[in-house]
């Protein structure tokens, strides 16, 4: 006859169950701790490392130095072409017209060529004051003074133009020519003597 195993002791069964339950609780606690540790870690989004792309290759245009302009060599004895005289002639009258208008506004006295040297010298002084006020060049002074010459004085100035280049004259040249014609020292000395005798009575 088979022998039946002895029935387990109730105390032993309960002890085994309690031991298994304790082991399950320990395993559960261990799993919870692992989960808690995982949750406490900072969540860092994984960013893929930047991909460094090489810049596109391009060709730098070559630097071309400027080609120096070659001036043609002019022989020493070669004649240099001058500006056309016609263009200069077109500019000069405009300049003279403006100069004449300025001089005319000053109402300068005219000179007709009297034989009285005192009157001639007074005119020369008056005209020089106006010319200095206008701040003219030496040649412009001669040009303006010639505008004020009338009648006999105009004819005298025409004779001066025939024997010398009046455009190259300065103001001192004009004064020298003028006094040589109208400033007679002998007549002036005689008039001064007459004036002195009249004052002495």
Automatic annotation (TrEMBL):
Coiled coil location: 14-41
Protein keywords: Coiled coil
Pfam families to which the protein is assigned, alphabetical: Retrotrans_gag
Sequence ranges assigned to domain Retrotransposon gag in this UniProt record: 145-201
InterPro entries: Retrotrans_gag_dom
Protein name according to UniProt: Retrotransposon gag domain-containing protein
